[in-house]
Design a protein that fits this description.
The longest helix has 16 residues. A six-stranded antiparallel barrel has the order 5-6-12-9-8-13. Strands 14-17-16-15-18-19 form a six-stranded antiparallel beta barrel. 17% of the residues lie in helices and 36% in strands. The chain is globular and about 60 Å long. By secondary structure, it is of the alpha+beta class.
Length: 354
């Protein structure tokens, strides 16, 4: 969800299965990322009426809970569709559709609702282009192909972009050989559109998820460390400096280590400024970017407030002081070893009287 920049989310719930744990987790993720969501209850043809009413009652109760604060709206006519679509971008209204893929019941209501929705993201065509890589392929006869989402700007055929960062944080110039969108060749793509690019003179093993292609005018630089305003959604105990977890921001997925916090420790519901460092490779980040932290049952969200381009490179923890050696200087024994040697040398000797 952080990588594909969704405008809206459709939460599918089986009428006969009720609210599973994954449904609640996905709803919590959409709320954390501030993405408008609507619910589709399926399999109403095979579900008894009392079970269907129980499922709808649980959905409404979950949407009205203090963590969600949504206004559930049952969709039963074309007028309800128009009303829900016109007020959906406020993020308070949550339409609920009841449908069956077998009988086709209420299918036209869902189709009409989707046709009335418009994108929430602006193209920003006048700004320098940025492309976020999500998948890489090696196509026979074509070469290396990357797919993802154009964040802003315009990318044309034969444009030269800066691709990176690699494991050392460097960017390299790359030429666009061809562009495909929805399986059709095109000559131009704009911000907010998903597309695939065939690249010249690069191998697939040089690419990874999380890399970006940006306009050379941006002079891109990678960072090892960043600061984020983090909100802990759930943590079993306390979160302290040195904690490691997986961070999802854009299409980047990598383990980070917490270096500093504005609070001594964090628990569920706490918010603080946290400075983090990537474990493996540097990444290309922008202030204001949304992030999700996950590790086991731990979940947190935040906004990146600052990036540190002057942080030292490498995967070692340069913020920890070097450990003091317990051994003495070269050529000198420790006190313990000296006493042991003196004990062995005096063994068997009778102490002389003074």
């Amino acid at each position: 969800m952080t990588g594909h920049m969704p405008d809206f989310c459709m939460l599918v719930v089986g009428a006969n299965s009720g609210l599973a744990g994954m449904v609640k987790e996905h709803l919590g993720l959409t709320l954390a990322l501030s993405v408008p969501v609507f619910v589709v209850v399926t399999k109403i043809d095979m579900c008894p009426a009392n079970v269907l009413q129980d499922t709808l009652r649980m959905i409404q109760k979950l949407l009205k809970s203090p963590g969600s604060r949504k206004i559930p709206m049952m969709i039963g006519s074309a007028d309800d569709v128009v009303t829900a679509a016109s007020n959906f971008t406020s993020s308070r209204i949550c339409p609920i559709f009841q449908m069956s893929s077998v009988t086709g019941a209420n299918m036209e209501l869902l189709q009409s609702f989707l046709n009335l929705l418009s994108s929430r993201h602006e193209a920003h065509e006048n700004e320098p282009a940025e492309f976020m890589m999500d998948e890489t392929y090696s196509v026979p006869g074509v070469g290396t192909v990357v797919s993802g989402t154009v964040l802003k700007g315009v990318i044309r055929l034969n444009d030269t972009m800066m691709l990176g960062p690699d494991s050392l944080g460097h960017f390299q110039a790359i030429a666009i050989r061809s562009i495909h969108r929805k399986r059709m060749p095109v000559s131009i793509v704009r911000g907010g559109q998903a597309a695939s690019f065939a690249l010249k003179k690069i191998k697939r093993n040089q690419l990874r998820k999380g890399m970006v292609m940006v306009a050379p005018s941006l002079n891109p630089k990678a960072c090892w460390e960043f600061e984020t305003e983090m909100l802990i959604l759930h943590h079993p105990s306390t979160l302290q400096c040195g904690y490691q977890a997986m961070v999802h921001t854009g299409s980047c997925r990598q383990t980070i280590k917490i270096l500093h916090m504005s609070a001594e420790c964090l628990r569920t519901g706490d918010k603080a400024l946290v400075r983090c460092r990537f474990i493996k490779v540097p990444e290309y980040l922008r202030p204001g970017q949304r992030m999700v932290l996950r590790e086991g049952r731990t979940k947190a969200v935040g906004n990146i407030t600052q990036i540190f381009l002057d942080a030292p490179a490498g995967n070692t923890d340069i913020h920890q002081p070097p450990q003091q050696r317990s051994a003495g200087q070269p050529g000198q024994g420790t006190a313990g070893s000296g006493s042991r040697r003196s004990g062995r040398s005096n063994r068997g000797k009778v102490p002389q009287p003074e």
